[in-house]
Amino acid sequence: MYHVGDRVVHPLHGAGTISAITQRKTDGNLRAYYVLSLLSGNLRLLVPCGTCERIGVRPVMTAAAADALLASFSRIKAEDPPGWNRRYRENMLRIRTGDPAQVAQVIRGLALRERERQLSAGERKMLVSAKMILASELALVKEIPLPAAAALLEPLGEP
What we know:
By secondary structure, the protein is an alpha+beta fold. Helices cover 47% and strands 21% of the residues. It has helices spanning 52-55, 63-72, 84-97, 100-116, 121-142, 146-153; strands at 7-10, 14-26, 29-38, 44-48, 58-59.
């Protein structure tokens, strides 16, 4: 169970802080929700308390893990399955794991692909989203502004 003030990551929306725990009545039942104030976009997200593990909400990584991820980024194997549909599906599955290394793999693969040829609109949107997810977590971990964290990811797609 999380508490107000805990810093967590939602696999599809990025990192934020639990700003409150509230109760809402849905389908006649009173349910508890975490109010997650996301770092990017001043968005507030209600996450049912009982579904965090299933959704993939997790605590932010440690500063040491963030440094190790950034240091190892150039060695991440960028897989490039044939076919846009398959590539998109596999990348989406990686993002949904919520694992920062998997999100980094998506960023690296799409950034390298973008350098070689133009990305489709869907893949371009996925690259932007994956960068935002990882940058928001890095910003919380390193206690830096979101644009500075995003800048850390820019050179990471280089071979």
